[in-house]
Amino acid sequence: MVPIHVVGIGLEGAAGLTAAARQAVNRATLLVGSDRHLAYFPDHAAPKVPLADFHAMLRQIHAYIGAASQAETDADPDTDLSIAVLTSGDPLFFGLGRLLLSEFPADWLTFHPHLSAIQLAFSRVKVPWQDARLVSAHGRSPDTLIQALQQGAAKIAALTDGHNTPPAIARLVCNLDLPGQYHLWVCENLGGADERVQCFAPAELATQQDIPFAPLNVVILLRDAEADAPDLATLPMFGIPDAAFLSFGDRPGLMTKRDVRVLALAELALQPGQVVWDIGAGTGSVAIEAARLCPASTVYALEKTAAGFSLIQQNAERFQVKNLKPTQGKAPAALSLLPAPDRVFIGGSGGQLGEILDDCAEVLKPGGRMVLAIATLDHLAIAQTWLQANRSAWQQHALQVNLARTVPVAALTRFAPLNPVTLITLQRSDRAPILS
């Protein structure tokens, strides 16, 4: 067996190696690495294999090991053969280590990690990173990054490449209707003499043309603690951007998204002077839009959690809606405290959808409507069972909402799907049939 030492190395070169890593390199009888890494050891006597083509490099390593095994009986017993593979940072963090482990037995390999670029980046921006989302867009689709952004991760570290550059990532942030605002730190040549760390707003970085970024860079995305208060004069009357709402710190994406919210409000067919219930209101996004659309109506936003109730209060103040009544309580028990509704939106049910529908059906005013937003098959099955049992009393239709938004992918554009939602609209059958 010829041992293979996988040595992580930084931009400071050989000077940054530990004693064990330096010894592994010095004793190597075959040295493998990129041209940049091999240049750190110009006087090394061992043959050098450039790491330009991974498969070609593997063939040369296998050939070396095969030749060594064949000549083992004839070799000088005092000659120790070993291979040193030079790679950036931590070989087992989005690095060459995974590929080498898939090719060679683990007991052949010894890893000597250096500080990873992401460790260095967080140290430069002075932010703890044990709870960060770590993604690689290096030679990969940005889907994992998109998911982290849509979930509102507070800290994201992204490895980049020539296509998924810092400006490309900034354009992605600008084009997604995110539940929070981000600032982006571009960290270049970390550990090198020409290291540079800069902070940008997404819109500023997205159009950055006059500052070329070094190929060796990491982007750190940090979510702002709180979004700036929206300018009410410029807000649309209908379809407020998700980012304008304050949201849950641990689940920023937990709200009825704008595209679904617009359809749900249209299905409610709101009229002035009505009583509207928003059950399982979460951040209050549906209730606030309804209150803004119909200032002569009274909207009750029912939320069981203290955190959600507080968010609804803050958002009501943020959007200066006076006809919204945040109410803390769990449906269906808390529904008895509210005046009879003309319209009911059910966005969350706490596992009691059937009971909530029963109670709403009893108190809904003549001509009233209910709209359910359902995201899981389980709740859809409960709703269908309830409708089957009450079919004669209701006109109903359903919309299966499958939406996708365009997102930039490097120099291209593609569609990124949103989670599907089913909207079920109910109206008492003693009224004219609802539109399908």
Automatic annotation (TrEMBL):
InterPro entries in the record: 4pyrrol_Mease (IPR000878), 4pyrrol_Methylase_sf (IPR035996), 4pyrrole_Mease_sub1 (IPR014777), 4pyrrole_Mease_sub2 (IPR014776), CbiE (IPR012818), Cbl_synth_CobL (IPR006365), Cbl_synth_MTase_CbiT (IPR014008), Cobalamin_biosynth_MTase (IPR050714)
PANTHER family attached to this UniProt entry: COBALT-PRECORRIN-6B C(15)-METHYLTRANSFERASE (DECARBOXYLATING), COBALT-PRECORRIN-7 C(5)-METHYLTRANSFERASE
SUPFAM superfamilies linked: S-adenosyl-L-methionine-dependent methyltransferases, Tetrapyrrole methylase
Keywords per UniProt: Cobalamin biosynthesis, Methyltransferase, S-adenosyl-L-methionine, Transferase
Pathway it works in: Cofactor biosynthesis; adenosylcobalamin biosynthesis
Membrane-spanning residues: none
GO molecular function terms listed in the Swiss-Prot or TrEMBL record: protein methyltransferase activity
GO biological process, one term: cobalamin biosynthetic process
Name the record gives this protein: Precorrin-6y C5,15-methyltransferase (Decarboxylating) subunit CbiE
Primary gene name: cbiE
Native source species: Thermoleptolyngbya sichuanensis A183
Domain Tetrapyrrole methylase as annotated: residue spans: 4-197
